[in-house]
Amino acid sequence: MEQVARHVWVVTSPTWLTTSTLVVDDDGACLLVDPALTPEEILALEQEVSRRGWHVAAGFSTHPHWDHVLWSAALPDVPRWATSVATDAATAEELTAQASRDLPGYRWDVIGGTTPLAPDTTEVPWTGPRAVVVPTPGHAPGHASLHLPEEGVLIAGDMLSDVEVPLLDDAPDAFEEYRHSLRRLADLDPRVVVPGHGRVAHRWVGHRRVHADERYLADLAAGTPPHDHRLADPRVRADHESQMALLSSRAGG
Ligand SMILES: [Zn+2]
């Protein structure tokens, strides 16, 4: 468990460098964001929380992709907040099907079943450090990042990664939405960026990631093959090629 700010710890799974983030109040109450990834890893996370004398008081899911809506029977049955758009975007059956396709051979206790935030909610309802919900659509319906202003931390969800390029939602305006979302995150100027997949970045590295994502999207828009080190990973390249094909079919049609 890596402490990245006074009240924030990050755990990283070896699979796709998937991160889980804990915001821990002074009394040990935790806000657990996107716990991941295998059932064993989520159980180990719960055991480490208990060992430290902490307790999970609330959850938050950044977006409705299966690897960001997991939970465990060993974790308390607390509200796991998500935007209402995210909550409505996929059923538990669809999310379970995504999981068994992407990472077969596991059985998770809970996939989906998040609690929708009221539409006018701007912060996660909990008593610990302030966690501002920042709507950042483009990657998935209802995608939201969390900004912890007192900690200087941005929990980005599936954006600002050093291992994955921006992957666009199916929505026709996803491209523009993603670009606006990147600007919104850059304007927050966080000290620490925690991506959903990849390594934690500190301020200037975070800015470099915004530029890398903007450059990738600009190349995609222009139909220019991007020179992006993240495409060396065959899995990321396959995702890149399918979204390039989708965009060019839309442009042609
Ligand atoms: Zn995702």
TrEMBL record:
The record's listing under Pfam families reads: Lactamase_B
Specify the domain of life of the species encoding this protein: Bacteria
| Domain Metallo-beta-lactamase: start-end pairs | 17-197
Annotated InterPro entries? Metallo-B-lactamas (IPR001279), NDM-1-like (IPR050855), RibonucZ/Hydroxyglut_hydro (IPR036866)
**Coiled-coil intervals:** none
Protein name as catalogued: MBL fold metallo-hydrolase
Source organism:
Georgenia wutianyii
Lineage in the entry? Answer: Bacteria, Bacillati, Actinomycetota, Actinomycetes, Micrococcales
